Amino acid sequence: MSTMAREFIISLYLLMYKLLFNFFKLFPIKNKIVFVASFKDNNLYIYRKLNDKQFPGEVVFLCKESCFHSIKEKTSVPVYVIESGNFVHELKAAYHLMTAKTIIVDNYYGFLSVAKFKKGVECIQIWHAAGAIKNFGLLDPTVEQRPKRAQKRIKKVYQNFHKVVVGSDVFADIFKKAFNVKEEQLLRFGYPRTDFFYNQTAQEKKREQFYQKYPQFKNKKIILYAPTYRPNPEDNQLKLDIDQLYKSLKDEYVLFIRLHPSVSISEINYFVYQDFVFDFSNKASINDLIVVSDLLITDYSSIPFEYAILEKPMIFYPYDLEKYQENPGIWAKYEDIVPGPVAFLTKDILRYIKSNDFDYEKYRAFKEKWNKYSKGFSSENMVHYLLKRHNME
C-alpha cells in the first residue's frame, strides 16, 4: 500500500473517531476507568488490584485483537475490540473514552490524536516494557521521514499522555525525549507486571505447573532464545547455528525458542533436533519461560529488563547491530546499555556458556538501574493513585 493511500485510510478512520468523540463529549463524565490495551500483563495486574480494593466504579477494556481474548477470559467487565473494523465496538470505544475519568493506555493509539478530553480527565501511559534498547516515539528516526500530516498526528497523540508511568530514572529520561513530556508528568510507580518477579510463591507455582505439563525438561538446563522483531520482514530469520549448539550442548541443555508474536520461522528442522530445540513461541507465557529458564539469549528485546530481576545469566547476540542501528536505531551505544556479555557469532555464545563466564555484579547493577521503582509494589502504587483520583481513598 502506498504512503498516500495509507494516509487517506488513516484520515477516514480518524474522521470517524473525531465525529464520535464530538458527539459523546456531550455525555457526562462517569466514575470510570478505561484500559486501552495491546498487551495484557500491566493492565490485568492493575485490574486485579482494583478488584482487591473493591473499586466501585466502572471498568472497561478496549483491546487490540492481540490481547482481546486473553483479557476477556480473565475479566468480568465489558471488553471491546478496537482497530479491527468492528464498527459497533469502535462506537462503544468512543463512548467509553469520552465518558471516563481515567484512561490507561499501553501503546501508541492514533485515535488519541483527535481526542479532546474534558477538564479533569487524565490519560495515563503505562508502557508495555520495563526498559528499552531500541528507539521509539519521537526518537525513532523514521518519524522524520513520514509525511508532515503523520508527524503532526504522532505529536498530538503524545500530547494526550497526561501522565507516564516509569520504573526507573534512566527510562524516565528516555520518555521525556520520546514522548516530549515534562518531569511533573512522570509517575515513578514501577511497572505492575514486574510484581510477579518479586513473588516467590507465584513463581514456584508457575514452575510446578510448567513441569507438570513438560516433565521431560526437569533434568535439563534451559536456554531461552528470544530475538526481537526486525522492521524489515526479510531480516526476521534465524541467525543462530542450531547444529553447532546441538553438538556441543545437547547432553546438558535444551533450547527454547520464543519468537516475537509478529514473526514465524519455518527453517528449523525440529525433527533432527527433536530432543534439543523446542518452539515455545505460543506454548507458554513469557513469564513462564523467564522463570523456568537458566539462561537468556537475546538482542534488542525488552525481556532482559525483567529477566535481570531474577539475576540469572544473559548473553546478548546483536548479530545485525550495524543494520539495526540505522532502523529503528538504538538510543545509546549498545555495549553501554546491556550488561553483557555480547556475542556476534554462535561460537562466542558457546564459549560463554561453556566457561560460565558471567559477571553477576553487572546483572545486579543493571537490575537496580532499570527497576529502581519496580520493587514488587507497583500494582499497589498505581491503584493507590487511581483510587485517590476517583476520591475513593
Describe the structure.
Helix content is 40%, strand content 13%. By secondary structure, the protein is an alpha/beta fold. The protein folds into 2 domains: 12-195 and 376-389, Rossmann fold (3-Layer(aba) Sandwich); 200-370, CDP-glycerol glycerophosphotransferase, C-terminal domain (Rossmann fold). It has a 7-stranded parallel sheet with strand order 3-2-1-4-5-6-7, with helices on both faces. A 5-stranded parallel sheet has the order 10-9-8-11-12, with helices on both faces. Strand 8 (221-226), helix 8 and strand 9 (253-257) form a beta-alpha-beta unit. Helix 1 crosses helix 4 (87-99) and helix 7 crosses helix 9. The protein is globular and about 65 Å long. The model has no long low-confidence stretch (mean pLDDT 94).
What would you say about this model in short?
By secondary structure, the protein is α/β, with parallel strands linked by helices.
CATH class of the largest domain: Alpha Beta
State the helix count. 15
Question: Helix amount, in percent?
Answer: 25-40%
Strand order of the largest sheet: 3-2-1-4-5-6-7
Encode the helix/strand succession as letters: HEHEHEHEEHEHEHEHEEHEHEHHHHH
How many distinct folded domains? 2
For the biggest sheet, the summary is: 7 strands, parallel
Q: Which fold name is given in CATH as the topology of the largest domain?
A: Rossmann fold
CATH-level-4 superfamily name of the largest domain: CDP-glycerol glycerophosphotransferase, N-terminal domain
The average pLDDT value, as a whole number, equals 94
